[in-house]
Automatic annotation (TrEMBL):
Annotated InterPro entries: EcsC
Protein name, UniProt field: EcsC family protein
Organism field: Anaerostipes hominis (ex Liu et al. 2021)
Domain of life: Bacteria
Length: 104
């Protein structure tokens, strides 16, 4: 137990041999030990906070990726429309450009 860092638990067991009240307290603690409960709760709280921080940092990244994909799709539609529009405009204005070159 001392090698695992359970020195207070080891001392409580030594007292339990001498005192019945300490033995009852040791039985109430059970197999987990006071240290395990305290550390477990502390690590769980740290884990929750780190998880929330990681999620908080991931939200802007996910939003940026989603926005980039939507912007790319919209830009592709705009470019296709502009290409078709200017091709039709070129065909419609072709006669006026020819007449301006000839001098009519």
């Amino acid at each position: 137990m001392a090698a695992r860092g359970g020195i207070p638990l080891l001392l409580a067991q030594m007292r339990a041999l001498a005192h019945k009240s300490a033995q009852k307290a040791l039985q109430n603690v059970g197999a987990k030990g006071l240290e395990n409960n305290i550390f477990k709760e502390a690590f769980e709280q740290i884990g929750r906070k780190l998880t929330l921080k990681a999620i908080g940092k991931a939200v802007p990244i996910a939003s940026a990726v989603t926005g980039a994909l939507i912007d790319t799709a919209q830009m592709k539609k705009v470019l296709e429309y502009a290409d078709i529009f200017y091709q039709k405009r070129f065909i419609v204005e072709k006669e006026s450009r020819i007449s301006n070159l000839i001098g009519e």
